[in-house]
Amino acid sequence: MAEQSTQERMIPVRYDERGNPYWESRMSPPDDSVGVCHIVPDRIVPVIFVPGVMGSNLRSSGEGRRWRMDSVWTALSWIWADAKERKRSLRPETMEVDDGGKVQRKMSVPREELRRRGWGEIAAMSYSAALRWLEENLNDYENCRDGVRVKLMEQALGAELGEATLTEDEVRLSYRYRFPVHACGYNWLDDNARSALRLGERIDQVLMRYRNEGKRCERVILVTHSMGGLVARYCSEVLGYRDKIYGIVHGVMPAIGAAAVYRRMKSGTEGGWAAAQVMGADAAEMTAVLSTAPGPLQLLPTPEYGNGWLRIRSGAQEVSLPRHGDPYSEIYTVRGKWWGLCDDELLNPLNEDQDINSRRLQLEKDWNNLEDLLLRTVRRFHLAIAQRYHPHTHAFCGDSEEKKAYGAVSWQQSIDEGKPLDEWMEGTAPHEWGRRRINQLEEDRVVLHPHGNTQARFSISGPDEAGDGTVPRRSGMAPKAHCRSFLRVAVEHEPAYNPEEGKTSLLALHFTVRAIVRIAQRVRETSTMMYDDLR
Q1: When comparing pLDDT for 371 and 527, which is higher?
Q2: Beta-ladder partners of 317
């Protein structure tokens, strides 16, 4: 009689509320099957996700509104918030990270553990699908013969640097470690240098946690989105956390800034109507918040961005700024010019109800504070991270002609009035207090000529450079010279890591996993993390 083969019965791994693995099998009638458990390693390489601007949940340290992006519905609560309400609510000194955001359900890891890892600190509508995908595909021990890592042994991604497929040895080693996915929210309104301090503290806490649990854990891997990359670079290279980080994977990072920030200060958020209403629909709403928020201002183009990205045109005449590599003095702190970064009348809408003398005094104070913020905090941060990257950096950027971003911003005179351009640049463009346009964004300025009653309309350009819709190619490509691997992919900025966005975002996620596996090979450098049979 032929001998029957034994059937393997997989017992899936589950995790308790402290994140420790366990296996559960129910009694069943005797048969020829055998239960199989895939052992989960106790040597830990934490992966910490650092979100982009507006991607962390915030709450007021006193009484006030929350910035919590759990879903479209929570985001919509900001649609009708005018400049005054935003000025009262979105202040860096009164906001703090809110860890009570939405956390994924129906995962092998309980919600209590995911919340403990910081998942509730970041915007669920932007990142929950990405966090889940990374957690499941970096800890797929039951699928170790057919998981994403195995497929990446044969799958080419089209990277410009580091395109070699994973080797069997690299994948095999990675499966001998556990990669729990954490998140680190931060006060995105505040100085990114302070956000980097928070990230450093989180790195220390995560490492200490696993060591206190008796696990081997020496360093972390960072995965960043957008402005989170600037926070991570400052943490690693300025604060001295490099030796606690195996490596960093950056996604769609505005490495040398983005001209879209200037455009938003002048004309509100570009893109779809709903997103613009939530983030800030016009110059009044954006200026009220950004003028006291160093984090978003640190996304302005840096000196590395180059000269000539701001252009004012009248007929055949054109002026391009900056001219001398100093955008701070040539654009950002220029006062009283309609083309300068900030219209001082919009700095503080809460001044509107004061008497004229009080308003003037407050306006001077507000302008001096903004000037100090730009010349000290913003410029200092830019200079501190210039050309500084972790030595094990991997990055991808969005590069699509269909998702253009602002490489340059141009003001074009609608009808040539036949007057010298330098005279129009000295003109004024008065604002109405509390103005809010519902049907269109502020994409133009009516400029009064300084001599006489002549006026002209200057309209702001549309995006002009391939990118991801927010970060132009020149800024997304800037890290390439400092990378171990680099990929250009046609992702859109905000959902760059979202697996539900289709093939391009999945390609970016596959690149991220491949980079993590490559970075993880550095465990060979730490004797406490390496296995005796692999020495």
Answers
A1: 371
A2: 314
